[in-house]
Amino acid sequence: MTMVGGFDVRRQQITFDYVDYDGLLRWGQIGPATRKALRNWLAEHCSDGDGQFALEGCPGWRYVCEELAAAGICAHLGDAAEIAVLPEPKKRAKTDRADTRLLRTLLFEDRFPESWILPAHMLEIRTLGRLYYTLMDERRAWQQRIHVQLFHQGCPPIRALLSGAGRAALDSVDLSAAGRRCVDTALRRIDQLSTEIDPLPSQLVNFARRQAGCQAMQRHYGIGWLCAAIIWSEVGDVRRFSSSHRLVRFAGLDVTVYSSDTKRSPGHLSREGSPELRWAAFEAAECASRRRSLDYGYYHKLAAKRDGHNGKNPHPGGGTQNSAPMLSPAACVRRWRPGAASPRTPGGGLLNDALRACHAH
């Protein structure tokens, strides 16, 4: 009999609940919650690798899945939100042991909501992409603090704060002592963040130039090397999406509408999932809205219909434009069958390029 169990990963300990080879139920805790402690526990309790363990996709899942794979044990990763709506029949107090029992029960009954486990190299690129996005967002926040301080003290607005002319203008504005200290502190933090940010794009771009999937995505107008690396790492294997619209929903770019009886609120983007993926899709859509884009006529007509103007100046970065970088390669792969021809996609790429973009890891 294969060992079947569940892990509840916490910062201080890992709670386990499993049924061993003799059919006996065992549970306990592994502490501290480190890679070495888990490795020793697996060597003692499951040395032959004949086992399956389920865990939630919460912080810490990476090293647990890696250690399970190294021990030859099958790891099952599940979405925490989907697991939460599958409670046990009897209502009990929520404890770590109850969580592990639920994971083990769902896995044993073949009801566990499986999630895709990313390969290690894709996790590394995803981590770098998210670090870049976080640092850029923090630097942008410090720039906004400078603008707020200037407006709060009645100073004229200054554009391009980080340029030489912008810094010279900041030195000449009339600020109070506290306001000047706030601006100087913000500039120092911006310089520190810029030092950390500068090498990241080159690392991501260098990887994207060598990766077949990123090369294929870059052939679509508007998707650059940096966005291609981020989209590739955030989306992963698109074969787990049954349609391109599911990929758009995964990115949080689908329109969500709340309605009750005869009342209906205006639709809005759901903004669920990865903010880094939405940022990359928005940047690609901004570039794809240029006049040289192959889909410019479609965007132009749709924006005019959506905004209700004459269509001369459509607003870039709209919802449909944001989802276009998601739709084009995914729709290609969805229509592909082995041995089929390679027709051109609406975005201008070849189907086999899109196939490599979604299947190459």
Automatic annotation (TrEMBL):
<feature type="region of interest" description="Disordered">
    <location>
        <begin position="305"/>
        <end position="326"/>
    </location>
</feature>
<feature type="domain" description="Transposase IS116/IS110/IS902 C-terminal">
    <location>
        <begin position="215"/>
        <end position="298"/>
    </location>
</feature>
<dbReference type="InterPro" id="IPR047650">
    <property type="entry name" value="Transpos_IS110"/>
</dbReference>
<dbReference type="Pfam" id="PF02371">
    <property type="entry name" value="Transposase_20"/>
</dbReference>
<dbReference type="InterPro" id="IPR003346">
    <property type="entry name" value="Transposase_20"/>
</dbReference>
<protein>
    <recommendedName>
        <fullName>Transposase IS116/IS110/IS902 C-terminal domain-containing protein</fullName>
    </recommendedName>
</protein>
